[in-house]
Amino acid sequence: MRNYLDLTGKTALITGASSGIGAATACVFADLGARVAFTYHANEKGAEKVRGEIEQLGAKPLLIKADVRRREEIESMVEQTTKELGAIDILVNNAGSLVERQRIAQITDERWNEILNLNLTSAMICSRLVAPSMVERKTGAIINIVSIAGRNGGGPGALAYATAKGALITFTKGLARELAPGGVRVNAVSPGVIDTPFHEVFSTPEMIRGFVAGIPMGRTGTSMECATAIAFLASGAASYIAGETIEVNGGQLML
Fold first, then answer.
1. What are the residue numbers of the active site?
2. Which residue from 32, 83, 85, 249 lies 20 to 30 Å from 13 (Cα-Cα)?
3. What is the pLDDT of residue 200?
4. CB-based contact 209:182 (threshold 8 Å)
């Protein structure tokens, strides 16, 4: 039986993959045959765990420590991936964080800029570095990980994060228009309430119960349910899809 999600021979770079959705995506990509490079910032223990899981699949991932808020570290990350694994065919801009919940009266200019740099500007810089080679080879896929917050404004104190993710959805559309003639597809995956360390840090059990009450499927999602949607967009099965944002939220938000 043919595997329509086969990624054999592809080089994939996934940012922020020491846990949660990024970690699951790295494992799924490796299982589908891709050469995987993935990054982490502070969670070295989690990153090493992910590396071990990928190695158990019979693959040899490239693990890179990188702070995507720093342009020079992004440049080094892309250079190392290309040098060791070959030209990048798939880029997943997953690194990001809410950082902390702050309302408009609390947030400083510095924190606002940090959150936008982490969630939005980093994806632009990664894409800018990777896209020329993709266009030159007339092939490639860029997947941006956005959020339901970018559609509905987010929960309490998530204004900066929601703004960044909303802008990343627009960036996805604009970049897709620009790169599609060059054979490069740009899309996004928008997770809803997913059972990841993100919510362990930023959401109380009471908040989670409130979120779930508004989800028709009646539960939170899993990292794997996001990772398989990302793999679909990275694969040839999505060859005629560009500029789209797939909502993975159990029906919480339907567009």
1. 161
2. 249
3. 67
4. no
In sequence order, what are the residues at sequence separation of 6 or more whose Cβ sits closer than 8 angstroms to the Cβ of residue 111?
Answer: 99, 100, 102, 160
pLDDT, tens only, 176-230:
999 999 999 999 999 999 998 776 677 788 888 888 999 999 999 999 999 999 9
Map tokens 């994806």 to a residue: 123
- Residue reference for tokens 């040098």: 83
Extract the tokens encoding 197.
Answer: 């360390």
Residue 251 one-letter amino acid: G
Q: Which of 235, 9, 41, 40 is nearest to 50 (CA)?
A: 40
> Among candidates 9, 70, 10, which has minimal Cα distance to 39?
70
**Which fold would CATH assign to domain 11-246?**
Rossmann fold (3.40.50)
Give the residue extent of every domain in the chain: 11-246
Give 177's contacts (C-beta < 8 A, 6+ positions apart). 243
Higher-confidence position of 113 and 204: 113
Strands, DSSP E only, in the chain?
Answer: 11-14, 35-40, 62-65, 90-93, 140-145, 184-191, 245-248
| Of 123, 207, 129, nearest in space to 165 by CA | 123
Looking from the CA of 141 toward its CB, the CA atoms found within 13 Å total 25
Residue type (1 letter), 55:
E
User: pLDDT, tens digit, for every residue of 167-183?
Assistant: 999 999 999 999 999 99
Amino acid at 198: F
Q: Which residues are bridge partners to 144 per DSSP?
A: 93, 188
- Give the 3-state secondary structure of residue 189: strand
Average pLDDT of span 60-81: 98
Q: How far apart are CA 60 and CA 205, in angstroms?
A: 38
